[in-house]
Structures are given as structure tokens and as C-alpha cells.
Amino acid sequence: MLALMLKALLFDLDGTLADTNSVHRLSWVEVLEPHGYDVTWDFYRENITGRVSADVVEDLFPDFTPEQVREMDEAKEAGFREQAGALEPFPGLLDLIERSRKKGLKISLVTNAPKKNVLAVLQVLGLDGAFEPVILADDFGPAKPDPAPYNAALDALSISADEAVAFEDSPAGISSSVAANIPTVGIASTSAPEDLEGLGVEMVVRDFADPRLEAFIEGR
């Protein structure tokens, strides 16, 4: 059987394109500390990273009405956008996207982030229009860790899982891409490398400047 050729790179957004998690944590501090939560990095990693904000609020405040959940969710996301202006892409990201585009690879975004956040972050990073398609969990049913967002990306690109590589930083995101049978590279921006290595990833890197990454992609 002939080997399938790599056709697409699928990127998560938060914690994968840039260190958005530092900004997200600060915005969670603003909305949760008045309610007695100490949003340490351990708390953030265990309860928040990679998840949809409204789901986090519902878990932390089971007695909240839907309206209260919506209000806290919107306040948290608005706080994130206000502080996102200083974000910078992770080392090697822009070069990887440019090289891959020149080789004819499709570049897609698969994210749990709300649309307003996606647009704001891509503008700050200089990546407006860089991703096609952009798969938002809001538009495709279940969010990560369900594989639905990644399956939607594969369908939109008309490719098989073996013809793609996914980049994810969180256990929830990795669970999603691995469940969709997509070879996945873990980005150790929020979690320690050893916390990602046992989740089914092909390799773990700190950022996109890791020389092993180019060799891995070339070998697909």
C-alpha cells in the first residue's frame, strides 16, 4: 500500500499558537477570586486549560442559573480580549506556516475558543486569514475533548486522519485529536512534557523552533 502524503496541518489556538494561557489565567483570577477561588497554575491546569469557559463556570458554580453562567463567561472572555494585545506567536510558528503553505499544505485552526477571542488573537499575532477552515467548537457540536471538532476539520478538508498532523498543548485537546486518529504533536507550553508524553502524541516540543519538528513533518 502506498503511504499517504501529508496534506494539512491542524492547529489549536490557546497555548499552541501563543502563550494565551497566561492571559486567560489572569482573566480567570479577576472573575473567580471574588468568589473565593485561588487560581494558581495548578488549579488552572487541573480545572480550566483546554476547556470551554462556560463549562468551567458550570462545574465551579453548580447552583448558578444559565444567566449567571453566561454573565461570568462573558466577563471572563471580555477580560481576556482586553489583555491580549501583547501576545506574540511562539518561536518558529510563522516560519512553519509559511514553509508549509509554500509546499501546498492546508493550514487549519481547530479551537474551543469563542469566535470573538479567535478573531482578536489572530489579529494580534498577524495571522488574519492564515487558517482555512477555522473550526469553532460553537459551530460543530461537542467541544474538545470530544473528537468532533477535528472530525469536522477533516471533513471540511476532504482528507483522512493520516493525511494531517495536529498541534495541541492541553490534555483535552490532545484527547480530541488522538481520538480522531490524527498524528499529534504536543506543545509543552502549559503542561510539563512528561504530562503530555503518555497521551498518545507522536512527540512533544517546547515550541515550533525545535529542529526535530521539521524532520518529523518532512517524514510524513
> H/E element string?
EHHHHHEHEHEHEHEH
How much beta, percentage-wise? 5-15%
Major β-sheet strand ordering: 3-2-1-4-5-6
How does the major sheet shape up? 6 strands, parallel
**Total discrete domains:** 2
Contiguous low-pLDDT stretches (5 residues minimum) are none
The value of Rg in angstroms is 17 Å
Extended strand count: 6
Q: Termini separation (Å)?
A: 15 Å
CATH class annotation of the largest domain: Alpha Beta
By helix and strand content, what is the structural category?
A: alpha/beta
Residue share in helices?
40-55%
CATH superfamily of the largest domain: HAD superfamily/HAD-like
CATH topology of the largest domain: Rossmann fold
pLDDT average, as an integer?
95
Proper CATH architecture of the largest domain: 3-Layer(aba) Sandwich
Q: Could you walk me through the main structural features you see in this protein, from its secondary elements to its overall organization?
A:
The chain has about 220 residues and is α/β, with parallel strands linked by helices. It has two domains: about 10-20 and about 90-220, HAD superfamily/HAD-like (Rossmann fold, 3-Layer(aba) Sandwich); about 20-85, DNA polymerase, domain 1 (Orthogonal Bundle), CATH 1.10.150. The protein contains ten helices and six strands; from the N terminus they run E-H-H-H-H-H-E-H-E-H-E-H-E-H-E-H. It has a six-stranded parallel sheet with strand order 3-2-1-4-5-6, sandwiched between helices. Strand 4 (about 165-170), helix 8 (about 170-180) and strand 5 (about 185) form a beta-alpha-beta unit. Helix 1 (about 20-30) packs across helix 4 and helix 3 packs across helix 4 (about 65-85). The longest helix is centred in the middle third of the chain and has 18 residues, at about 65-85. The mean pLDDT is about 95.
